[in-house]
Amino acid sequence: METCERVELNGMKVFPFCSPKDLLNYVDDHKGILVAVNAEKVTKATDETRAIVNNNIGYADGAGVVVAMHKLGHPEAIRIAGCDLWLDIIRESYKEKAFYLVGGKQEVIDDTIAKLREEFLGIKIIGYRNGYIKTEGERNALIKDIAEKKPDVVYVAMGSPKQEFLMADMMAQHKAIYQGLGGSFDVYTGRVKRAPLWWQKHNLEFLYRFLKQPQRYKREFFRLKFLIWMIMGKFKMNTI
Q1: For the chain, which terminal residue's Cβ has fewer other Cβ atoms within 10 angstroms, N or C?
Q2: pLDDT tens digit at each of 240 positions of the chain
Q3: Which residues contact 74 (CB under 8 A, 6 or more apart)?
Q4: Is the pTM value of this prediction over 0.85?
Q5: Is 149 in a helix, a strand, or coil?
Q6: What is the Cα–Cα distance from 172 to 26, expressed in whole angstroms?
Q7: Is 74 exposed, middle or buried (0-12, 13-18, 19+ CB in 10 A)?
């Protein structure tokens, strides 16, 4: 990446990557937590979530974030969907890297592992478990297992900010590439359908989800708040 500028959105510093490859090249040299940033995360930011993003690798996974980057001098910045990015990482590195996956119901993670092994022959998956961690003991055991097995890439699909807090604790014990995936395992195994490609290419995936699930209307308030902040000039560049 040619620039070391990040866009600061309500205290969250986000990289204006211009392609998934741009991001992958950066991650190769900078281990850390990949955090998908969208309007909702920006407007609901806390000191704790800001710290995780700012100390790691925040990337634009929301149309509003991309528009803000364009207005602040990065017209080349694009939206990078987290549910595509994790598979891009596997596609680029499954022959060399070892993977550990956490998240979803037991049947979801089982189907995810089976499909990955079928799609990426020879992939090295050195550990996995469901996302229902009920006790502090289970949580500590998982972090210990990560530290002992030393995977190169760890995926955690548990929803934000829970997954980010867990990855931060994992990162403190073992340096690796981490990525939070939300419901990506459900998408990968066909339990949840993504928007058609046209909606994805035009950064309208959020609108498609809203039309399919109008009960999500409360989440649209965060997009409106983000838009108002952008009009008011609340966001800025931050050089690192």
Answers
A1: C
A2: 444 689 999 999 999 999 999 999 999 889 999 999 999 999 999 999 999 999 999 999 988 899 999 988 999 999 999 999 999 999 999 999 999 999 999 999 999 999 999 999 999 999 999 999 999 999 999 999 999 999 999 999 998 999 999 999 999 999 999 999 999 999 999 987 766 777 666 666 655 565 555 555 566 666 677 777 777 777 765 654
A3: 5, 7, 16
A4: yes
A5: helix
A6: 20
A7: buried
